[in-house]
Amino acid sequence: MYVAVKGGEKAIDAAHAWLAEERRGDVTVPELSVAQIREQMALAVNRVMAEGSLYDPDLAALAIKQARGDLIEAIFLIRAYRTTLPRFGYSNPVDTEKMACDRRISATFKDAPGGQVLGPTFDYTHRLLDFKLAADGEVPEAPTRETQTGPVPHITDFLNQEGLIQTEPTSDEAPRDLTREPLELPADRALRLQSLTRGDEGFILGMAYSTQRGYARNHAFVGELRIGTCAVEMDIPELGFAVEIGEIELTECETVNQFAGSKTEPPQFTRGYGLVFGQTERKAISMALVDRALRWQEMGEDNLGAAAQDAEFVLYHADNIQATGFLEHIKLPHYVDFQSELELVRKMRADAQAQTMPEAAE
Amino acid sequence: MHKIEERKGWIGLLAKAPADRLTALWDKVTDRPGFTFLRAPEIGGAMVRGRMGGTGGAFNLGEMTVTRCSVQIDSGEVGHAYVQGRDKAKAEAAALIDALMQTKAADGIREAVLVPLELEMTSSKVARAAKAAATKVDFFTMVRGED
Predict the structure, then answer these.
(1) Which parts of chain B have pLDDT scores under 50?
(2) How many of the other CB atoms lie within 10 Å of CB of A123?
(3) Sorted alphabetically, which InterPro entries does this protein's record hold (chain B) (predicted)?
(4) How confident is the model at residue A4 (pLDDT cuts 50, 70, 90)?
(5) How far off is chain B from A247, nearest CA to CA, in Å?
(6) Where are the domains of chain A?
């Protein structure tokens, strides 16, 4: 027999009203505006855009406010909103070579053309709490210098000229799209990259770290890391040509990895690639390492049984909205499920008791 | 061809412009045509693509918000807009400006809206680039040893 249970509406309404009050916090403290979050919590906003898979800083800031700073909840809100948007089209691939770089560093070539540009980085800070920030303080203006003009080529181009690094095969094939069809294996590299770029930062970081610690080691150097803005261009059917429809901030990481060569390839460097919305360098570097680890088959490498080599394991667990949805649902009412479990356990116990004490039962 | 390039230029500029600045400049334009919507402002998304390894085949990176709008002004010209973000007023202004840029009013609109927008956007880019340039590392080598 199944008995439907109703009730709880009043309790739910009261819970949500209290949530709204708790979200606001102490009313004697000024309320945060969405613009303040967008401008001053920019890296949280970037993470929500990257994992929400929707570039819109105002919406991401609003989601963070609504979620009380719970970034996975905020990502959930963005994913839900995203599904309501009609799809106007697919952009042409962004040209990261033309990025207006705020930051551009290489761990492999000191004298790379275009130079080592640090940008607004946490690197080389001492990680000491700055109590000046606890008081309202004016920020001194950042120094400026005459800007250089001229191209900032990708570092891997130099290795490519000598044939020391694998080339990336180009194709005009339309890539599969996770948002239009379910993720099915085998996943080609395009689908893996789409999945990784919106995957959970913590999970991708953990996977990447595991490769560094020796599980499918492929010793990565950061060939190049660049952060800056790129124009987005899309074909517009009513115009009959492509126009720029906007400009987005991106972080791109190219790793250069050791490779001894295989039966078909001479010894050369191989590549991993990360490209993520916003200023998100931890994520982009992690993505590049995991991308490289997942390419083992294509490189003719051995399957070492490492987690980061297992596309099914990585791709099916990288999405924090899928993960949290399944994880958190177990706290919702399972009264009927559990009732049946309870009865089953009671019956099994009774049977077991009957077996161990047959004389008592007689 | 030249005309298409020019049109691409202003459509792209309008798409990237900050919504509040574009609508503020447009509000100051007094000589506005009557128009009908061919497509009322509509908010949607575009899937942004990247290239594997920066240069290889395409992959889907994630979406961005876009608002589009199409108008026909009373003199017959049709204007289209695809602008970044979710601002319907921005999309409407951009579509009207695109239509007007195909008329004799083009020079006036360029002076009143496009030129100031471009100057502002360029100057903020230049300021950012100058700050980036100040963080460029100048390496120097320490001389070690006897000779």
Answers:
(1) 1
(2) 9
(3) Phosphonate_metab_PhnG (IPR009609)
(4) low
(5) 6
(6) 10-82, 96-120+150-169+177-324
